[in-house]
Specification:
It holds the Pfam family DUF2628. The structure is a single chain. The protein has 160 residues and is an alpha+beta fold. The chain contains 6 helices and 3 strands, in the order E-E-H-H-H-H-E-H-H. Helix 2 runs antiparallel to helix 3 and helix 3 runs antiparallel to helix 4. The model has no long low-confidence stretch (mean pLDDT 85).
Length: 160
């Protein structure tokens, strides 16, 4: 089972909960192979720039004779760190910017996590519509002299 964080935007969720985020907490393969690109995609700009500079630095370190292994291990460790903690870092940035952590849900996939969360929300009260017989009683009578529409394109004022 995976854990999912449910975050609501500042000021509370909208009526349909379209702005509510359900974020998986855990390892990300895309963040492992492309850490700075994953950070940019998730709008973590400053950290993405730092990750890009770190990858450039480890690449340059690998080119120095005798430091190839150290550069590779440093790049691997950094990519592993972003892959393991990137989603948590993203949720922390959202919380600092005003989002609210509603709950943490354990579920096998994101669809199940969404179903668990949204099924637990209070449902709005449904107003029953009046019976059709009561609609007829509530209708206003037509004004005096008003006639219904005639068939055809033109109204001949009763001359048929």
């Amino acid at each position: 089972m995976r854990s999912y964080l449910v975050l609501t935007p500042p000021g509370g969720p909208d009526r349909d909960h379209r702005s509510t985020l359900v974020v998986q907490d855990g390892f990300s393969w895309i963040a492992f192979f492309f850490p700075w690109l994953w950070l940019f995609w998730n709008r973590l700009w400053i950290t993405g720039i730092a990750a890009l500079l770190m990858q450039i630095g480890t690449g340059l370190l690998m080119d120095i004779p005798g430091f190839g292994t150290a550069g590779f291990l440093a790049g691997f460790a950094f990519s592993l760190l972003i892959a393991l903690e990137g989603r948590h870092y993203r949720s922390e940035v959202l919380i600092r910017s005003g989002w609210t952590l509603e709950t943490v849900i354990a579920a096998p996939d994101i669809q199940s996590a969404e179903e668990i969360y949204f099924s637990g929300l209070p449902q709005p009260e449904e107003k029953q519509l009046p019976a059709s017989a009561e609609w007829a009683k509530q209708a206003k009578p037509p004004a005096a002299g008003w006639r219904g529409p005639d068939f055809g394109l033109f109204d001949y004022q009763g001359g048929r």
